[in-house]
Amino acid sequence: MSDAETGHVSVLGAFSPAENKLNILLLALPATCYFAYVAHDESMAFFSSLVAIMPLAFLMGRATEEIALRTSESLGGLLNATFGNAAEMIIALLAIYAASQADTSTVEGIATEELMVNLVQASLIGSILGNLLLVMGLAFVWGGIHYAEQKFSQTQVSSNGSLMLLAMIVLIIPAVFNSTVGGSEGAEGVANLSHIAAIVLLALYGLFLYFQFKSHVDLFATETHDHEKPEMSQRDAIILLIAATVLVSWMAEILVHSVEYAADDMGLPHLFIGIILLPLFGNAAEHFTAVTVAGKDKMDLSFAISMGSSTQIAVFVAPLMIIIAWALNVPLTFEFGMLETVSVFLAVLIVNAIASDGKSNWLEGALLLGTYVVLGAAFLLHP
Predict the structure, then answer these.
(1) Which residue in 119, 161, 168, 144 sits closest to 369, CA to CA?
(2) Residues 286-297: what's their mean pLDDT?
(3) Which residue in 14, 30, 91, 379 has the most C-beta neighbors within 10 A?
(4) What torsion do the CA atoms of 337, 338, 343, 348 make, to the nearest 10 degrees?
(5) Of 310, 383, 305, nearest to 344 (Cα)?
(6) Reported pTM
(7) Distance CA 73, CA 223 (A)
(8) Is 84's pLDDT higher than 80?
(9) What is the dihedral of CA 366, 372, 376, 382, to 10 degrees?
(10) Residue 72: is its pLDDT beyond 70?
(11) What b/e readout covers 246-272, taking b as 16+ CB neighbours within 10 angstroms?
């Protein structure tokens, strides 16, 4: 049977509120265009673009899940994690480009460059925290409500956990280096150290993918989705993925250029916007998918999306952004700030401790969610 025969949801149908109630939020698309291009209300443009990204990110996730249904759970988790992170990647890329275009010969240009660099760093940290604590916490709680205890691959836990600890070393060392050396030499050393670390992390992530999908594929082997049929043809799923990605890029461009005005008008710290708000809306697809499949007792897929997404941000997206910023002469480094670095380090520790036995229940999910709320409060109250 062909894809066209098995699929019964069209590309246009996927955008319909009748297909999913979340699509009602797509009304934020024309609203964003009005505020950005007609009313020139930057604050409203920021919040409407933030809302618009949520259903678009969900549609990206929907298309990716349709494609992933034709694969194993490990590969499906990688696909979901990759395209689930697409919104954050697009926002980070646009912020880096905006920083590269800032006129640093003026005070305003220096402030813009610094704001964009901080926004990139905050969104990357926020994505890691959001996936580790919020997404995984919700998945454990929702799955735990339906099943007393759920199991997932301990190989996934150990391999992803080891990579995350390595990423934490990469975050901690630049901060320690700068505090011990200090001055212009310290800043230059941190930049060079970040470039070296970024190259090493990208190489190790490539080796991890080879390990997972080639040399030790049997360790990650899980059942395929034979029992669950795709609702879209593969062609329609790919078209939906491309269309949603283009629209997310458009909304992200408006968001990046209006974030400063929104922060000033609403009195919100830039740190809170970057670490909590952007990932919260941008990760909507991952939130929904990881939690939904956990309720179906597919914890390997749920864990691959949440933990795998954090790993991918830490050892692929973050170093890639460092390399791109280096090429564009933007001073983006792995020195993310003391509060941010300690928060992520502690989040990795608690997740590794909770998930090390390869089992989960709703109480462990509640512990992760409680940790996320405490850290969120810290970033909100940060001056």
Answers:
(1) 144
(2) 83
(3) 91
(4) 90
(5) 310
(6) 0.85
(7) 7
(8) no
(9) 130
(10) no
(11) ebbbbbbbbbbbbbbebbeeeeebbbb
C-alpha 156/C-alpha 304 separation (Å) is 7
The Cα–Cα gap between 65 and 71 comes to 10
Q: Which token pair is 75?
A: 């590969």
Say which residue, 321 or 234, is predicted with more confidence. 321
E strands, the chain, where?
150-151, 359-360
Decide if 248 contacts 26 (C-beta within 8 A).
no
Best-predicted range by mean pLDDT among 20-24, 138-142, 282-286, 302-306? 138-142
CA dist 53 and 26 (Å) reads: 9
Query: What's the CA gap between 300 and 153, in Å, rounded?
Result: 6
Instruction: Quote the CA–CA distance of 348 and 340 in Å, as a whole number.
Output: 12
Task: Return the residue matching tokens 């990204």.
Answer: 53
pLDDT in tens, 170-189: 888 988 888 888 777 778 88
What's the residue count for the chain? 383
Identify the residue whose tokens are 């001056």: 383
Res 224 pLDDT > 60: no
pLDDT tens sequence across 352-372? 899 888 899 999 999 999 999
User: In the chain, how many H helices and how many E strands?
Assistant: 18, 2
Which domains, ranges and CATH numbers included, belong to the chain? 9-381 (1.20.1420.30)
Q: Which residues contact 197 (CB under 8 A, 6 or more apart)?
A: 170, 173, 174, 319, 322, 334
Give the whole-angstrom CA distance, residue 335 versus residue 301: 32
Sign of CA dihedral 22, 303, 270, 192: negative
Amino acid at 154: Q
- 318 SS3 class: helix
φ/ψ (deg, to 5) at 151: -120, 150
Residue 366 in contact with residue 350, Cβ under 8 Å? no
Nearest to 124 by CA among 320, 268, 286, 285: 320
SS3 224: strand
Selected residue with higher pLDDT from 111 and 29 = 29
pLDDT at position 279 over 80: yes
DSSP 332: -
